[in-house]
């Protein structure tokens, strides 16, 4: 799986926001649904917390898509 890099200026990004930013979901409601259904992994483990904070170096996976969080200025 190839990971898409998403760049953040803050210390963290919420999981639901990261999925939207990466283009894996189109709406916050869709993000909430797939997270609560256990379809998303954070750092290799299923995560059902939509407000999960992702920091620099964290990864998330949904279906056949992956993202990695990186600090960017």
Give a written overview of the molecule.
This protein is of the alpha+beta class. The protein has a single domain (3-71), classed as RNA-binding S4 domain (Structural Genomics Hypothetical 15.5 Kd Protein In mrcA-pckA Intergenic Region, Chain A, Roll), CATH 3.10.290. It has 2 helices and 7 strands; from the N terminus they run ββααβββββ. Strands 1-7-6-3-4 form a 5-stranded mixed sheet, with helices on one face. Strands 2-5 form a two-stranded antiparallel ribbon. The longest helix has 9 residues, at 28-36. The chain is globular and about 35 Å long. The relative contact order is 0.33.
SSE layout:
Blueprint: E1 3-8, E2 12-14, H1 15-21, H2 28-36, E3 40-42, E4 45-46, E5 53-55, E6 59-62, E7 65-71
Parallel strand pairs: 1-7
Antiparallel strand pairs: 2-5, 3-4, 3-6, 6-7
Helix pairs in contact: 1-2
Outline of this structure?
The chain is of the alpha+beta class and 73 residues long.
List keywords for this structure.
73 residues, Structural Genomics Hypothetical 15.5 Kd Protein In mrcA-pckA Intergenic Region, Chain A, five-stranded mixed β-sheet, two-stranded antiparallel sheet, 2 helices, globular
Q: So how many helices?
A: 2
Q: Please give the alpha-carbon distance between the first and last residues.
A: 26 Å
Q: How many extended strands? A: 7
* Regions with little confidence, pLDDT below 50 for 5+ residues: none
**Percent of residues in beta strands?**
35-45%
Strand order of the largest sheet: 1-7-6-3-4
N-to-C order of helices and strands = EEHHEEEEE
Give the mean pLDDT: 95
Q: Which architecture per CATH?
A: Roll
Tell me, what's the shape?
Answer: globular
- In total, the number of domains comes to 1
From the 3D structure, determine the CATH topology: Structural Genomics Hypothetical 15.5 Kd Protein In mrcA-pckA Intergenic Region, Chain A
Q: Please name the fourth-level CATH homologous superfamily.
A: RNA-binding S4 domain
Helix content: 10-25%
CATH class assignment:
Alpha Beta
Biggest sheet features:
5 strands, mixed
Q: Provide the structure class.
A: alpha+beta
